[in-house]
Amino acid sequence: MTAAGRPGVGARRATLLVLPAVVPVVVVVGAALTSAALLSLGLTPLVGRPELSLDAWRATELGTSIRLSLAIAAGATAVATVVGLFLALAVTAGARRSRLLATLSSLTIPVPHLVGAAAMGLLLADAGFLPRLLGIAPADWPALVGGRWWIAVGAEYAWKESAFIALVVAGALSSRVASYTETAALLGAGRWARFRHVTLPLAAPALGASAAVSFVYTLGSYEVAALLGRPSPEPLPVLAVRLFTSIDLAARPQAAAVAVTTSALGLVAVLVSLRSLRRLAAEQ
Amino acid sequence: MSGSLQLTGLTRVHTAGAPPALDDLTLAVPAGSCVAVLGPSGSGKSTVLRLTAGLDAPTRGTVHLDGRDLAGVVPERRGMAMVFQRPLLFPHLSVRDNVGFADRVRGLPRREVRERAEHHLELVQLGGFGNRPARALSGGQAQRVALARALAAEPRVLLLDEPFSALDTGLRQEMHELLADLRLRLAPTVLLVTHDPAEADALADTVAVLDAGRLQQLGPMRELYARPRSLAVSRLLGGRTEVPGTVTGGRHRSALGDLELPAPAPEGPGVLVVRPEAVTLVAAADADARGTVVQVRRRGLRALVTVEVAGRGTEPAAVAAELPPGAEVPVGAEVGLRIPVTARCVVPPAGLSEARDGASAHDRQR
Prior knowledge:
The complex is a heterodimer.
Chain A: H1 5-40, H2 55-59, H3 62-93, H4 96-106, H5 113-124, H6 129-134, H7 151-174, H8 177-186, H9 191-220, H10 223-228, H11 236-244, H12 252-283
Chain B: E1 5-12, E2 22-29, E3 34-38, H1 45-53, E4 60-65, E5 68-69, E6 80-83, H2 95-99, H3 101-106, H4 110-123, H5 139-152, E7 157-161, H6 169-186, E8 189-194, H7 197-203, E9 206-211, E10 214-219, H8 221-226, H9 231-236, E11 241-248, E12 251-254, E13 257-260, E14 268-274, E15 280-282, E16 289-299, E17 302-309, E18 317-322, E19 334-338, E20 345-347, H10 350-365
Parallel strand pairs in B: 3-8, 3-9, 6-7, 7-8
Antiparallel strand pairs in B: 1-2, 1-4, 4-5, 9-10, 11-12, 11-14, 12-13, 14-20, 15-19, 16-17, 16-19, 17-18
C-alpha cells in the first residue's frame, strides 16, 4: 500500500463506520417522509386509482394550525429560554440556596410530558388545586386549561423545557463563566454589564442550541396540546393524529399533508438555528 | 493613575477549622512601585490578590487604597485590574473590543473606545491586531492583549497573578522587558504574584516572601538573596548550601571549621547558608575549607558542583559552588573552598524556627 493511498482508505473506513448509524435514520425517516408525501399528493391512495392532487393540502385548515403551533412553540420556548438561562446562572453562581433550586428544577427532567400535562391540568383547571388554594370560585377563574390562549399548554412546555435548557446552559457555562465575569468585574463592569457583555454572549451558543431543540420538540409534540388544549383550532400534531385515526379513510392523505408540513417546519427551524449557531460559534 | 495600596493584617480562612490560607499579612505598595509576592504554590499568594481585588472577602484585616478602606467595596468599584495566568480574553470579542472593554462598559463613545484601544495595543507592540478575533492569537500575544486590556482600564493598582508563567522562557523575557518599559512610561502601581525568584528580581522593587500563608521576609531581592531570614526563604530562592553548626562570639562552628560572620548572630545552634554564586574553588592554601567534589551539574556554560567537606567529629557538610563560565572540575577532585565573609549568613535551624512558628500559631488560636 502506498503512503498516498492511506488517507483515502482512512476516509472510506470512517464512512463505513458511520454507515450503521446513518442507514437506519435515512431509511426510516426518508421512507416515512416519502410515503407520507406521496400519500398526501394522492399518489398512493388506500382505495382507488393513484392521481396527483393537492386536495389533501387544501381540505384541512392547515394555515390556522401552522400559526397556532408556531405560536405555542415560540411562546413556550421563549419563556423556557428566559427561565432556563436564569436557572443556569443561579446554578453556576454556586450559592447553596441556588444549588437547591437547581436540584429541584432538574428533578422535572425525568418527569414524562404526559404526567406533567396531567399535573398541570390538576393545578390550573377551574376546579384545580390552585383556584382552591386561592379560594377563587371556578366561574371567576380564567380559562387556563382549554382556554383561548393555551396558557396551560405553554406553561407545561415552558416548565419542562426550562429545566432542559438550564441543564445544557449550566454545563456550558460552569467551567469558564466565573473567571470571565471576575475579569470583567475587575475591568469595571457592574452586574448588568457583566451579564450583557460577558455571560449572555458566552451562554448564547448553548442557549440557542437548546432553545432550537425545545422549539422543534414543542412544535411536533402531541400529548400536552391534546390534553390541555381546546378542541378547535388544533395544533398540527393534534390535527395529524385526529385525521390519521379517523374512521374516514379519505382523511389519511390530509393527515399525511399535516405530518409533512410539521416535519418541514421542524427542518426549517433546525436549519435556521444551525446557521445562526455556526455564526455564534465562529465568534467564539 | 497610580494609587498607593496598604494591606493590613490580612487573613483569610477558606473553611472554618482549616489553617488560614493567608495569615496576618501586612504589606505596603507605594504609588508607582512594583511589589512582588513570591512563594511556592499553595503559599497563599493568589489569595493576596483575590482579597485585594475584592473577589474574596478577608476573614480579618483591611485593604486601603490611597487611605480609603475598601471593605465592602465591590471589585468593579475598586479601581483595580488584574491579569491572570491565563489571558482570559473574551472569546466572543475581537482583540480591539477586548482592549476597549473597560471603556465600553464605562460608556465612552464608540470612536473614543476604538482610538484608546488602538493606543493601548500599540503600547504592548500589537498595533494593527485590533480586528483579529481574540482566539486567533498566540499565547504570548494573548497575554499582551490581556495586559493592554488591564492598562486601558486605567487601574489605580495593577494586579498580576503569575501572568507570564505559562509562557516559554524567551517570551517571558520579552514580557519582562515590556512590563519594565511600561513601568517607565506609565508608572503604574503593581502588585505581582509569582513563584519565580528571577521574575520577582526582574520586575519588582520590593519582594515579599510568603510561605504557608505567612510573610517570611520583605525587602529588595538582593537583600533576600544575601541575607535570607529563614531556611524556607533560602530554599525558595535557590539556596542549596545548609551547614548546621553553632554560633559563638560572632563565629560559626561547623564541619567547615570556625568561620567569621559578617554580622552579629544569635548565640546557639544556627545553619550557615551561602549562595552558590558566592563560593569559589581555590588552591588549598587560600581555602576556608577543603573537600571533595561529589557531584557536577551543568547549567549552560556554568557548572554547579557539590563539594563534600568531612567534619572533624561532626557530620560532613555539602557546599554548592557555581563555577565561572567554561571552568571544569571532575567528580572526586580534592578542592579548596573560599566563602567570602560577606556571603555568610546564619539562619535558625528548621526544627527551631518551626517550633517557634508552631508556638506562635498556638498562641494565636488561644
